[in-house]
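Researcher: Here's the sequence for the chain we discussed earlier.
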Amino acid sequence: MLLQQQKIQLSAYSDLYDLIVPKDNLLRKINELIDFSFIYDELVDKYCSNNGRNAESPIRMFKYLLLKTIYSISDVDVVERSRYDMSFKYFLEMAPEDAVINSSSLTKFRKLRLKDTDLLNLLINKTVSIAIEKEIIKSKSIIVDATHSLSRSNPYSALEVLRERSKLLRKAVYVIDEDMKDRMPQKNASSELEKELAYCRELEKCIESDQTLSSVPAVKEKLNLLKETVGDTQENYILSKDTDAKIGHKSVDSKFFGYKTHLAMTEERIITAAVVRSGEKGDGPELPMLLKLSQDNGIQVDTVIGDSAYSGKENLKLKDKDDQNIKIVAKLNPAITQGSRKGDDRFDYNKDADMFVCPAGHLAIRKARQGKKDIGVNQVDSYFFDIEKCKICPLRDGCYKPGAKTKSYSVSIKSSLHQEQMIFQKTEYYKEKSKHRYKIEAKNGELKNVHGYDRAIAYGINSMQMQGALAIFTVNLKRILKLSK
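Model: Thanks. This is the structure I predict for it:
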């Protein structure tokens, strides 16, 4: 049962806060800056109003999570510190002698109360509203970029997963019939993945040959799991406990396993929008969503500042959409052109690797330029993909022609939109606005180095969105306090 948030109760020790927590303390200033009742309004429907014992205030629980993010500490540590740190108790609106919660309550709060809430946009909207109200945001430009976060888990090698699941299958079989040990194929003793795949297929055939055995539910379940794993391994060659995380590329030779958070920020360094995606997603396609979210949060936008990943044709067309006349201050890269392909056929440009990524998430392995500059038809850049992956790709129909020796994706270097952009790049306005792009790199560094956003603290994209929401809420509040001096 949920009661309204209680303010600090009368206590003989309440005056200690005025003595111990200074006026310029960060937590005191945050309490004075923002009314957290919006958290109660958002979560009140998650609680029963007339049954069960009294629940801990959702505002206080949220503040515990915020303290975790501000000081980059664990659930256990934030609760333990709240026992003796008077600034923490003041921020949590507790009497000095009040007892703290059990740290396990924070896990339940995240899973039960914050589930299915759009916390990311809720918290960004709140901080942007405060910045607008205090007249901090004066520019009409947003700076866009993406920052990567590593998954909490390291990816398992496909070989390890196959061996584990074939082992589970054998165990399930031996429980039913120990005599099957003599009929099993010989195990693969090498570290070669192809040999392990071949062994797993032989194991499947051996068990399926005994219809009675393979129909036993315990065996059938493990058999189907192994079949699925073999199929996934042929496609991806890597698996992880974090099923939402994917492999992305920071450069041709550098990759990461995790997520990307796409950000939009004003010139005053207030984050106005964020979108969390898996690591393989490109940067450019997220610009329309970042622009829309920023505008929905009350930001007037006439200029978008970004790197070359945002100079694709679809983004350059934003200037004519709905008569918005939005200028794209992004260095033109010929490889950005998306051609005439649409929908599922669209390949995304990865500006870090300077290569295209196919719809299945595979990075091109090399590129070549065809044609002569300024002679005849436009030059074309062709990007070539690993056909061994194309042969077993689940999206190969309509993309890879069986028997073909190569698979390439070609883009025209110039278009009318790019020609206009080339002219715009020479203007003083473009040169002046492009000087602001460094600011978002510094903001990415603050999120990662100060507030632990370099690695996910839990599994799944929903948890990553929650982590991003609290980290962005924190840096926005700190920025507002600094600019309000």
